[in-house]
Amino acid sequence: MNNQWKLVPVEATREILVAMLKADGHVNRYRDAIAAAPAPQQAPKPFMYGIMQPDGAPHYSELCVSGEASDLASEVESMNEGEGTGYRVVGLYTHPDDDEVNRLRAERDALQLRLNAADQRIDELTQHEHEPVNWAAPKTVRQLIRQLQTLDQDLETHAMLRIPDFKDGKQVRSCPLSISYERMEGPWLSSYKGEGRKVIAIWAKPDHRDLQDQGETLTESAES
Asked: pTM above the 0.70 mark?
């Protein structure tokens, strides 16, 4: 009898059963079964060792990690004598649990999608940032926003209406101003639930009250 040992699975594998059926005699059958047993899966080797507190949390100190477990033995021994019991040296591994890896990958992918969308939005907002502002009648909300961003944000807003039949025909009147979300079919206003294109409508509404009843006075245009 020799002193060699081997770990074998509790449940016989197919290879073990086949080896037992083919062997002659009980002794050979036993030896062949042992030889056919798979080698146990080796546990991953820690790349470093650390100290774990009694509650399972990591312990931090000047000497809390090392490449060798023996380097931490005296530190753990002194802590268990002075602070209580339960401190121990544990192995630190580079390969986490598969479920944890999958969870982290899913979080990473979701975050990457959000970052991509944010980058695309930033590009859209800044692609015309360095171009000169066109002060003609704005054709889009983006152009209107770029015009407004160059101004004092506390300026009042007024819609100006030229009155050709008043005095010298150069007078300009301030009118109430409002903005609404509408749909257009060609140059015509469509119903809100219509099939027309979506637009932002800026309304200048003349004040038809008598002059003495109106809230604003007439002003001369810059051309006069």
From this structure: no
